[in-house]
Design a protein that fits this description.
Bound molecules: adenosine-5'-diphosphate
Structural class: alpha+beta
Number of strands: 29
Largest sheet: 7 strands, antiparallel
Helix content: 25-40%
Distance between the termini: 193 Å
Shape: rod-shaped
Strand content: 25-35%
Length: about 800
C-alpha cells in the first residue's frame, strides 16, 4: 500500500520527518501521529490530543503507551516492532483511553516514511475510533462461537439452509443422522440430505423446510417420521422447521431441528405394552405407596374387588383387608421396606360388597431411579374357585380311593407313558407287595415267567397307540400260587384329547376259567354219549323197521289169504239160504243169517286192514292235487253220498294242496261216509265242505249235522279199532279214522276235529298248498285206485 498524500510524502518526495505539514494536519478529522526510526513518537495532531485529553509533551516518545489498555499494550508494541523491523505498512487495533477515562477501540494504520530514496525516517500513523464496529464484530463473533458450541453440544440435529433450501450448515448430530459431512453437504439440496419417509407406509414425507420457507411459519413434522441416512441407517425422528428472517423481515433461509426418538418411541411402546398388560390382566394389579395408600388400580382389581379406580385410588389399602388380618399389612409393609418380594402369599380379602375372597398375593417393591423404595405393586389373583376346585378334587379323590379299595378287582393307574404310579389296596393285599416294589414297570415281578414277556409287549403297544388294552394272564399271590386274571385298561384323556393316564383293573377269573373247563369237559362227554345213543337208536330203529315190515307183509298176506276162505263161507251160506231156506227150520235160517252177516263184517274188517297197510307201505311223492275234482269223483262213486240220503254242499273254490291222490281219496271217502253215517235216524245228513288258509297250510273242513262226539273221545277215535258207538247202532270197523290219520301223516299233514255231543262235528285236514300254476294239477286222479272200502254201501 502506498501512503496517502496527507499521511506522508510520495515516494521520492522529501518531508521533514518530524512534523505534519501545518494546519491541515491538525484540522484533519482523523487522529495522526509521527514516529522516528527509533520508534519514538515525534508528533501527535490536535485530534489525538483532544481524544486523549493529554498534552503533547505527555504523549511524545513512549508517553502515549500509558493510554493504551494494559491488555492490548504488549500486542500493540509487538505489532509496531515487527512493522518497524520490516519497514512495512501495518494495521493494528487496540484500546486507547479517552479523556473521559473510557477505553475506545482504535484502528491504526502505519506507513513507513523515507528520506530521499533510501533513507528510512520513521512512520506516520492514522487512527480511527472503531469501537462500535469492533464491539459489534466481537459480539457477533462471540455469538457465533456460542452458537456453534451450542449446536455442537446439543442432542438435536440442526440443518440450516438458504432461501432456496440449499444446505449451509449441519451440526454434528445432523451429520450423524444424515450421514453427510458438513463440508460435502454445503450447497446440496436439503431434500437430498434430509431423507424422511413414513414409518409404516414408507412413502416419502414432504420436507417441512420448504413449507417453512414458503409460509414463513414454524412447521412441525408429521408423526411416524423415519430418517434414512446416506448409508441406509433408519431412525425415528421428530422435527420442526423454522424460517430465518433477515433484518428486513424477508425469509432468507430455514433452520431444521430434528431429534432421534427411536429410544423414546421404544420406551413409549414398552410403557403402552405394560399398561395394556396391566389393564387386560385378569388379576388385580394395584400399587400403593409406603403409607399403604392405593396409587393405581386396574380393571382386574375393579372386577375382583368391586371398587372402581376412582373409588379406590387415594384410599388406604387396608379397606380390602378383613379386620382379623390387618396385622398382615404391617408385616407386608415391613418386608417391603427391606426390599423383599412376597410371592404367592395365600390370604383372604374383602370385596366392596363384603364378600370374602381367597386370593394369592404377590407383592414387589417399586423403586425410583435412585433405587429408593417408594411403594409396592400388588398382584392379587382370585383363587376362590381354584380353592373350591381343589377341595372338590380332594373330596373326589377320597371317594375314588374308597371306591377303588373296595371293589372286587385289583386296580391300578399309570401315567401317559404306561408307568404305574398307583395300585388299590386289593392289589397289595393279593400280591403282598408294596408300592415301592411295584412302581413303574416292576409289576412284571408278580407275573408268570412264561407269560410276562407277551403281556408286557402287548401292554406297551397299546400304551403307544392309545387304544384300550385287554389281556388274560396269571398273577402270583402272596401265597406263591398263581391265579388267572382278566385285565383291562382304558386311557383317560384331558380336554384336548391328550392321554394323561391309564386306569386298569384285573378281575380274578380263575373260578370262571375252571367252570369253563369243566363245562367244556362235560360238553365233550355229552357229545360222545349222544353219539353212542344215536348209534343205538339207529340200530334199534333198523331192527324195528325190519320186524315191522315183516309184520306188515305177514298181516297183508294173512288178510289177503283170509279173504278167499271167508268169501267161500259167505257164498255157501248164501247158497244154503237161497236153495234150502224153505227146508230149514226158522232157527237154522236165523243162524245162517248170522253167519252171512259175520262173514260180511269180517270181510269189511280185512278190507280195511288191507287198506291201512297199503297206506303204510305205498311210496309217497308229493304232487299238487285238485281237491274240487277229487271230491266230485268220490261223491259220484258212492250212492250213500247222494240225495236224498245226503246233501253235500261244497264251498267253491277249494284251494289245491300238495299230497297224493290215493291218500286223499281215502281221507275224503272215510270222512264223508262218517259224516253221512253218524246222524240220528230219519235225519237227512247235511255236509258242508270248504278250505281255509292257515299259513303256511291249507285246512280242508268237513262239517256235519250228526250226533257229535264228546271231547274226551276226540283223540282216541283216530286209533285203530277205536269206536264210540256199538256196531249195532252204527256199523263200522273202527279203522276209517286210523286210515285218515296215517294218510295225513304220510303227506306231512295233520287231522283234527271240533265237536260236542249233539251238535254235529267239524273234521279238518291240514296240508301244504300246491303251487297254483302247477301243470300237474290236471293229472288223472283215478290213476291209482284202492280196493273200494265202501262197495258195501
Ligand atoms: P267206523 O268204522 O266206526 O266209522 P271210524 O274209525 O271211521 O270207524 O270212526 C271211529 C268212531 O268215531 C266211530 O265209530 C264213531 O263213533 C266216531 N265217529 C266218526 N265219525 C263221526 C261223525 N262224523 N260223527 C259222529 N261220530 C263219528
Amino acid at each position: 500500500m502506498r501512503a496517502q498524500p496527507e499521511h506522508g510524502p510520495e515516494p521520492g518526495q522529501t518531508g521533514t520527518g518530524s512534523t505534519f505539514p501545518g494546519r491541515l494536519v491538525d484540522v484533519a478529522p482523523v487522529m495522526l501521529w509521527l514516529a522516528g526510526p527509533d520508534q519514538l513518537r515525534r508528533h501527535f495532531n490536535r485530534r489525538w490530543l483532544e481524544f486523549t485529553g493529554r498534552t503533547l509533551a505527555q504523549e511524545l516518545g513512549r508517553g502515549w503507551l500509558e493510554g493504551v489498555h494494559p491488555e492490548d499494550r504488549d500486542a500493540c508494541q509487538r505489532a509496531l516492532q515487527a512493522a518497524f523491523a520490516a519497514r512495512q505498512e501495518f494495521r493494528t487495533e487496540y484500546r486507547l483511553r479517552r479523556h473521559d477515562g473510557v477505553y475506545r477501540w482504535l484502528v491504526e494504520q502505519g506507513i513507513p516514511l523515507w528520506e530521499g530514496r533510501a533513507e528510512f525516517s520513521g512512520y506516520a500513523g492514522t487512527c480511527l475510533d472503531a469501537t462500535d464496529r469492533i464491539e459489534a464484530e466481537r459480539e457477533a463473533h462471540a455469538q457465533r462461537e456460542r452458537l456453534l458450541v451450542t449446536l455442537a453440544s446439543i442432542g438435536d440435529g440442526v440443518i440450516v439452509t438458504d432461501a432456496r433450501a440449499r444446505t449451509t450448515f449441519l451440526n454434528p448430530v445432523a451429520e450423524a443422522l444424515t450421514g453427510w459431512g458438513r463440508d460435502e453437504a454445503q450447497g446440496q439440496s436439503l431434500d437430498l440430505i434430509f431423507n424422511v419417509v413414513h414409518q409404516r407406509t414408507r412413502s416419502k414425507l414432504s420436507n417441512p423446510a420448504h413449507e417453512a420457507i414458503r409460509t414463513g411459519k414454524v412447521i412441525g413434522l408429521a408423526n411416524h417420521a423415519l430418517i434414512i441416512s446416506r448409508d441406509g441407517c433408519e431412525r425415528a425422528i421428530s422435527d420442526s422447521a423454522a424460517p430465518i428472517r433477515s433484518r428486513e423481515g424477508k425469509v432468507d433461509g430455514c433452520v431444521l431441528v430434528f431429534r432421534d426418538v427411536t429410544e423414546q418411541k421404544k420406551a413409549e411402546e414398552a410403557r403402552l405394552y405394560l399398561s395394556a398388560i396391566v389393564e387386560s390382566s385378569d388379576d388385580a394389579i394395584v400399587s400403593k405407596n409406603l403409607n399403604g395408600i392405593i396409587t393405581s388400580w386396574n380393571q382386574g382389581a375393579e372386577r375382583i374387588f368391586g371398587y372402581s379406580a376412582a373409588e379406590a385410588v387415594g384410599r388406604p389399602v387396608t379397606m380390602l383387608i378383613p379386620r382379623e388380618q390387618l396385622s398382615e399389612e404391617d408385616d407386608i409393609l415391613a418386608r417391603l421396606r427391606r426390599g423383599e418380594r412376597i410371592d404367592h402369599f395365600e390370604t383372604v380379602r374383602l370385596t366392596k360388597d363384603g364378600r370374602r375372597l381367597s386370593i394369592s398375593l404377590t407383592v414387589s417393591p417399586i423403586r425410583n431411579r435412585e433405587g429408593e423404595i417408594i411403594g409396592a405393586s400388588k398382584i392379587a389373583r382370585d383363587i376362590t374357585s381354584r380353592k373350591q376346585a381343589e377341595e372338590a378334587v380332594l373330596e373326589s379323590q377320597d371317594r375314588f380311593r374308597t371306591l377303588a379299595d373296595n371293589i372286587a378287582q385289583l386296580a391300578w393307574m399309570a401315567d401317559a407313558s404306561g408307568s404305574v404310579f398307583w395300585y388299590n389296596q386289593r392289589w397289595f393285599d393279593y400280591t403282598g407287595t408294596t408300592l415301592e416294589e411295584m412302581r413303574g414297570w416292576q409289576w412284571q415281578q408278580v407275573h408268570h415267567p412264561e407269560y410276562v414277556q407277551a403281556v408286557a409287549e402287548k401292554y406297551r403297544r397299546h400304551v403307544e397307540s392309545g387304544q384300550s388294552w385287554e389281556d388274560t394272564f396269571p398273577l402270583r399271590g402272596k401265597d406263591g400260587q398263581y391265579r388267572w386274571f382278566l385285565s383291562r385298561a382304558v386311557p383317560i384323556r384331558d380336554g384336548s384329547g391328550r392321554i394323561v393316564r391309564w386306569f386298569g383293573t384285573n378281575t380274578d377269573i380263575t373260578d370262571w376259567k375252571e367252570t369253563q373247563e369243566a363245562l367244556r369237559r362235560a360238553q365233550a362227554q355229552l357229545i360222545s354219549s349222544n353219539e353212542e345213543l344215536e348209534r343205538r337208536v339207529r340200530e334199534r330203529t333198523a331192527r324195528l323197521r325190519s320186524a315191522l315190515s315183516e309184520l306188515e307183509a305177514f298181516s297183508y298176506s294173512i288178510s289177503h289169504d283170509l279173504r278167499a276162505p271167508l268169501r267161500a263161507m259167505q257164498q255157501y251160506s248164501q247158497v244154503l239160504l237161497e236153495d234150502y231156506g224153505d227146508k230149514l227150520d226158522p232157527d237154522a235160517t236165523r243162524f245162517l243169517n248170522y253167519i252171512v252177516a259175520a262173514g260180511a263184517r269180517a270181510d269189511a274188517l280185512i278190507r280195511d286192514v288191507l287198506t291201512y297197510s297199503r297206506i303204510v307201505r305205498l311210496p309217497y311223492e308229493p304232487r299238487p292235487v285238485d281237491l274240487e275234482k277229487l271230491l266230485a269223483d268220490v261223491i259220484r262213486q258212492d250212492p250213500a253220498l247222494q240225495p236224498p240220503r245226503a246233501e253235500i254242499h261244497v264251498e267253491h273254490p277249494l284251494t289245491p294242496v300238495l299230497g297224493n291222490e290215493t291218500f286223499l281219496t281215502q281221507c275224503l271217502a272215510n270222512l264223508l261216509v262218517n259224516a253221512v253215517k253218524f246222524v240220528r235216524s230219519g235225519v237227512t245228513a247235511k255236509v258242508r265242505i270248504w278250505t281255509e288258509e292257515r299259513p303256511p297250510n291249507i285246512r280242508l273242513w268237513l262239517s256235519d249235522n250228526g250226533i257229535g262226539i264228546a271231547p274226551e273221545h276226540h283223540q282216541r277215535i283216530f286209533g285203530m279199532f277205536e269206536r264210540v258207538h256199538a256196531p249195532k247202532e252204527y256199523e263200522g270197523t273202527g279203522i276209517g279214522l286210523a286210515i285218515v290219520k296215517k294218510a295225513a301223516e304220510r303227506m306231512g299233514g295233520r287231522v283234527g276235529l271240533e265237536s260236542e255231543l249233539g251238535r254235529g262235528s267239524r273234521f279238518w285236514l291240514e296240508l301244504r298248498p300246491a303251487d297254483p300254476t302247477s301243470e300237474s294239477l290236471r293229472t288223472d286222479h283215478a290213476s291209482e285206485r284202492l280196493a273200494d272200502r265202501h262197495s258195501h254201501a
